[in-house]
């Protein structure tokens, strides 16, 4: 199981201006500022075989309702795993995922001839930790009008 935890949606509601000629002394008045809005949810993704996978639709299925409540904000995805990672890449051509995996397997080899000392959980465990460290376990994506604001071909 891969647990994507602490999907945190946040937005700072803009300052409400009472008039264009507001007294400067009231700018820091707490009654004229709305509180930030937050939402946090933990979801669990089904286990996937080793490789590069699109998980955007699975995550959106779980957090789409929460996203719709944000006009402007940030979605922060954090993965609770040390041998998996999150990255944004192209979604149009499957070859992108295949080429990415080929590249990663070339620069981080696995198997009995690989130079890794940490093999207690199998010969593929240390390469998975290294690959995870290369991409990282978190993403922050802008929210605009209740949707993730990503480019046409971007997915994670």
TrEMBL record:
Gene3D superfamilies tied to this protein: YjbQ-like
Signal peptide: none
A Pfam family: YjbQ
PANTHER family: SECONDARY THIAMINE-PHOSPHATE SYNTHASE ENZYME, UNCHARACTERIZED PROTEIN YJBQ-RELATED
NCBIfam families from the UniProt entry: TIGR00149_YjbQ
Name of the protein in question: UPF0047 protein C4A8.02c isoform X2
Organism (species): Vigna radiata var. radiata (Mung bean)
């Amino acid at each position: 199981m891969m647990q994507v935890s602490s999907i945190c949606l946040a937005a700072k509601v803009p300052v409400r201006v009472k008039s264009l000629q507001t007294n400067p002394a009231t700018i820091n008045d707490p009654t004229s500022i709305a509180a930030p809005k937050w939402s946090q949810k933990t979801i669990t993704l089904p286990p996937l075989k080793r490789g590069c996978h699109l998980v955007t639709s699975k995550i959106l299925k779980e957090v789409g309702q929460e996203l719709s409540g944000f006009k402007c904000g940030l979605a922060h995805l954090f993965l609770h795993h040390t041998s998996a990672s999150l990255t944004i890449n192209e979604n149009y051509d499957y070859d992108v995922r295949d080429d990415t995996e080929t590249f990663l397997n070339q620069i981080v080899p696995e198997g009995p001839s690989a130079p890794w000392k940490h093999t207690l959980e199998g010969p593929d465990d240390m390469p998975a930790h290294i690959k995870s460290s290369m991409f990282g376990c978190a993403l922050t994506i802008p929210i605009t009008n209740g949707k993730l604001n990503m480019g046409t071909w971007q997915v994670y």
